[in-house]
Amino acid sequence: MALLxxxxxxxxxxxxxxxxxxxxxxxxxxxxxDPDLCTECVGHFDEPxxxxxxxxxxxxxxxxxxxxxxxxxxxxxxxxxx
Length: 82
What we know:
The structure is a single chain. This protein is α+β, with helices and mostly antiparallel strands. It is about 25% helix and about 5% strand. It has one domain (about 15-80): Alpha-Beta Plaits, CATH 3.30.70.20. A hairpin with a 4-residue loop joins strand 1 and strand 2.
């Protein structure tokens, strides 16, 4: 399942550089996560780095993009070419 940044985001900019897939970018009002690039850090880390580093806890799972662990690993392999 991809992650989602909620409107509780304070635009602190710590999540964007923490994302190994470059799935996070600055949106109009808050940072946004591209669900096509988000693997919840599967293949890179044991837990999503944006969630770990977020000071306001505003990055839950995106219910509109449900994916299994194997789906996330397949996406990781597609993105990285591994």
